[in-house]
Amino acid sequence: MFFLPRQTLTAGEVLAVWRKNPLVTHRDELKRRTEAKKKTQPQTPIPRRLAPAIRRLEATFHFQANDDFRRRELVYGRRAAALFYFRGIADEDQIERAIIRPISLIKDGGRTHDPLRDQRLTALDIVVLETMEAVENALVDGHPVLLIDRLRRAYAFNLDDYPVRNIDKPTNENVLKGPQEGFTERLETNIALLRRYVRSPDLIVRRREIGQKNRTGIVVAYIQSLANPHLVADIESRLDAIEALEYDWVKSVEQLIEERPYSLLPSMLTTERPDRAMAHLMEGHVVILQDNLPYAFIAPATYWNVFHASEDHYQRLPYAWFIRSIRTIAFFLTLLTPGLYIAATNYHVEMIPLDLLMSISGSREVVPFPAVLEVFLMELSFELIREASVRIPSQIGPTIGIVGALILGQAAVQAGLVSPILVIVVAITGLASFTQPDLSLNLALRIGRFAFLVASALLGFLGLSLLLAVTLAYAVSFKSFGVGYYAPWAPYTPSSQDVFLRRPAPEETTLPQALLLRTKTRLDASGFFALFGRLSRRRAEKRTQAEGAGRSGRVGR
């Protein structure tokens, strides 16, 4: 896919329009001014003679210094031609077989010397380019470009051959039951995966490129018949603002379009799994793909989207209920366990049973640190082990993490630096944090538990309760692209029941309405309704026949 050079506005103009209206007004004004600048900003047409075009391309791509930038001099009929490409990102075998050989067999250039009009290379995917900027962009994208003397256009061939990783299992979102494939770093592959999972003509895929020096492909995907048009306009407006601000390159589009960059709560869901992206598309969400990233961003994100795992809908109902219940308990254990330990041992010892209190006191007799410092040291040690296990080679990472934690805990207890009960508390907290399916939520809990630890150290259960109330109030008021974080519970909206505990699959016919979708029922709900309608009618007929047989039997007696 090829793109002409971007036309952008200054940062001051964008911010001035953004203050007026961050949604529709900004987008329309930006589009109007961009179209106006297209007419005035100079574009470099392809020269009629071949030599000036060759000199410009060689200067732009540093032909003398770049060993992988290739130029092949050809003859198209009776005219000179030149083929440019980069080795390694263009398929040289295809170039030789599909371009160079057919051109070498042409004895004359026909009436127009145009490969498309003369039907010389019709078997290839060819794009006509009319400016030198478009030629440069096509070469950077890995497409060979053919220029012909006395022809004011160039031809780019879709023969890019970037080295890419094959589709593999997701690294962070493993499941026992369900699809075992994840996104890759290649944008076209990820789009193809989405198309394979969402086989609907309503799937809209819009692509753009952002970045001044290093262009990055961005794709916005949504279901036309489901997605809220205001949500789509909001996301595209933010992407327009990023493009207009002329960033040199984009590391992560999530950090550029999110509303609260300092918040611990994620405003976008990140997933490596195409089936999870498909499930959110079918619920009216918008999926954003970025080139060179093996995961997708999903907007908006509510707590329930982050809390749910892909495996929940592949497991049978009792198993899914059990797994979600365990995950909920683990959520509160991760967040509150260290704080509860500090509050109980420092402020509210009367709440602890006498035998347990004596055991805790006896184990802490030789510990030289206060309980708060003891917990902080152990939590930091556990975080160090967890971070180290991620950075070291994958073959020995899990082993180092488990063995390191055991050795460190045992050595600390034997040295009298920590109490055995605290090792158990920290271990429970760490294990509970691993149950959260989303990495952003996991990190938020890991950081948040230190805040609850400080509140418990200052005010005991009172500080813990106050911070919990403040956190809940903040989470309820938090919005992701205009959608409440705890929707459809706060604010309450009659919606899908797949929130805390999901319903049986035949009854999941209502879509989440927090996004103000265009429809209220799932796309496949009619099949369920028809199936269960037939079953209900059959049961009613059998019941009527049984009752009729019973009455006739009583009359006969």
TrEMBL record:
One GO BP annotation of this record: spore germination
A Pfam cross-reference name: GerA
The keyword Cytoplasm belongs to this UniProt entry's keyword annotation: no
TM spans (from-to): 397-430, 450-476
UniProtKB keywords: Membrane, Transmembrane, Transmembrane helix
UniProt key word Membrane: yes
Cellular compartments per GO CC: membrane
Similarity comment: Belongs to the GerABKA family.
Protein name listed in UniProt: Uncharacterized protein
